[in-house]
Amino acid sequence: MKSIVFLFFPLLVHAEPATLVRASELKAQPASDAATVTQLAVDAAVDAGDRSGGWVKVRTSSGAEGWVKMLALRYGGPGAAKRGDSGISQAINVARTGASGTQVTTGVRGLDETDIKTARPNPAELKKLESYAESKSSSAGFAEKGNLKTQRVEYPK
Q1: CA 60 to CA 46: how far, in whole Å?
Q2: Which of 60, 88, 136, 142 is deepest in the core (most CB within 10 A)?
């Protein structure tokens, strides 16, 4: 029994209570086009775990596991206030500085060396990208209709 507890201990320690701030799809993988496991309602309580890019792996109270977008989560569980902040101190801070002191920062990792080495061309996506380009004459016609003037801008050095 002790070995089972130690086996799952890292999973128990890593989970953090969170609440969904908007209805979201629970995805099987951390990607928008991944299969949807289930729909999660706004204010649903989840345990947040690992992060992958802009996605967070969560477990619902019913035991369903999957990935949701990081910005759909509020950490601390339902109705949890920011630690150390009372309504009075926050009001004083707003009056003193013009800001509540609340800050949100989101980061998404870029490409690593393995991503670059294993990258493969995708001709269909390149063709799709090229289809968005406008010709010089089409752009000039658009500018003329909008009474836009050419203006040179020097690149910063």
Answers
A1: 5
A2: 60
Mean pLDDT of 2-24: 66
Highest CATH level, class, for 2-75: mainly beta
Domain ranges of the chain: 2-75
In terms of C-beta density within 10 A (0-12 exposed, 13-18 middle, 19 or more buried), how is residue 56 classed?
Answer: buried
C-alpha radius of gyration, the chain, whole number:
24
The Cα–Cα gap between 83 and 102 comes to 11
Q: What is the mean pLDDT of residues 44-69?
A: 92
Answer whether 42's CB lies under 8 Å from 22's CB: yes
The maximal CA–CA distance of the chain, rounded, in angstroms, is 77
User: Which of 34-48, 96-110, 113-127 is predicted least confidently?
Assistant: 96-110
